[in-house]
Structures are given as C-alpha cells and as structure tokens.
Amino acid sequence: MAIDKRAAVLSLLDAGQKQEYIPAAFFLHFDPSCHRGQAAVDKHLEYFHYTGMDVVKIQYENAFPHLPQIARPDDWAKMPLYGRDFYAEQLKVVGGLVEAGRREALVIATLYSPFMCAGQAAGGQAAITAHIKEDPEKVKKGMEIITESMMIFVKGCIELGVDGFYASTQGGESDRFEDAALFETCVKPYDLTIMREINRACIFNVLHVCDYHGGYSDLTPFLDYPGDVVNCSPKLDARTMTPQEVSAMFGRPYMGGMDRHGVIVSGSTDEIAQAVEGVLAQASAKFFLAADCTLPGDVDWNNIRTAIATAHARGAE
Length: 317
Description:
The chain is of the alpha/beta class. It is built from 12 helices and 7 strands. Strand 1, helix 3 and strand 2 form a beta-alpha-beta unit. Helix 3 packs parallel to helix 6 and helix 6 runs parallel beside helix 8.
C-alpha cells in the first residue's frame, strides 16, 4: 500500500493522532560535482528514491567565503551584505527540488545559523569564538549583517514553496564560552530572528542542535527555540538520554536515534536492522528515525536503505 509521505510526516504534529507509520531519513553531502544546477537536483532525487526516505532534504552548499580582512573584532563592521544574487545557484536547486519533489514528500531546505556563517567568514569557529570573547559588542554588528543576508535566502526559499527548513544551530557547546551570557547575547538572538520567521511561514521545521564542533552539557538554552521536531545527539557530557527523554525535554517529537559514526556506517544488514529495532524500542510516542547529524559522504546507500526499511516495516506491524 502506497504511503502518503507528506501526511505521514505531518501527522507527527497531531498529538491526538496515534503514530502508525515511522518516518525515517538520513542526510549526507554529495560529491561537489552535484552541488549546483540540474546535477544537484538529480542527485537529491536519486538519493531520495533509492533510500526510500520520507522527506526531501536539500543540502546547503553555499558557504560564506573566508574574508581575511575580518581579523579582529573591529573588523566585523566591514562584513558585506550578501544579496539574493549570492544565493542564486542554491535557490535554483531549491526551486528544482520543490517542483520535482513536493508531490511526493515534504521538501525542507538546510539552513545554517548566523553563528555558523560568521565562522566561515572569519576562517573558522575558533576565530569567531575568540572575537566574541574579546569584544562581543563589536561582533554583533557582523552578526546583524549576516542575519539580514540569511533572511534573504530564507524568504527566497519560502517564495519557491519549501515546506520548511532543517535549521542548524551551534555556539552553545560546553567548551565554547566560559561565560554563558555570550551565547545568550551574541548567538541566540540571531538564531531566533531566523527561526521565528520560518516558524511563521512554514508547516514543518526541524530544530537541529549540531554537535559537529563539540558536545553539550546542557540543552536547556535551546528549549525555547522554534521547531516542530528536534534533532540532536542524545549524548550530554554526563549521560546519554533516551529518545523519550529528549522528546519530553523539548516538548515535541524527537528526530534521531542513530549515531552518525556507528553501525549505520560500518554494520552489516542484520546489525543495522537490529540497531534500528533497539532504537524503536525506546522511541517516544511521536518519533522520526534519523541520525544525530550528517552521515559521512561515502556511506553505502544500501545501509541507509536498510535502516529506513526497518523503520517502515516496524510501523506496518
């Protein structure tokens, strides 16, 4: 029986509706030859159909260029405002995938946070972190400019018809700022400006608390972030939470369960299926199977297909 993937995923947001289908999706970056134009559209669709996953998630491949002239906090006033032309190639991919994929599934665009883009402009997250620690007020000017620029991309995606965004945030890692107020004043407000706009305009947004640059001792700073579901690593410095605990903490469905470096990368078909079954045994009442972050680009697509098929079969029992 064919599944209406759009309806199945959106049913996660109906607290009164029993979940009878377990959606699943895993994300990865494609080869650079598939970052632009029709090649990007075709590769996303090939991956979506081969793995059987339940959303079309558009990878973001339009990093802010490194600006050597931003070498100290005073320099953030020189941050250029990138207009729509800067995002033109990425928006072409978004438009192509909305047109081709929206009939089959929700189409969500990857969205990096202003802090992440500031790190790209500064030449790395160590640089933007050091600048914030040295003079947070001067860095805020650059963050404002970046946020204004990113809003151009967000509104462009909304105009093209995306159903939502996979909104990634960094900056609150346990080893990032000794003074938590720096996250609250130099990172979070710019996140929320973007996320409130997508929450207003879209029907399905994923809050992704990214641990690519370090883990977290506390996720409570993110509890008031918008997002219909939350995707994050369940590992805190002191312990590992169950999917049920993460869902209860954030008050929304949890999207996750699989370690991006674990069995889905290196396991056999049976090992992957067993791991998925173990995750589903601890799943929250509303649950979306996924990894805690992007998978390695060279992962075998058959591994992903196995994990997704296992989740679908469990939901059909």
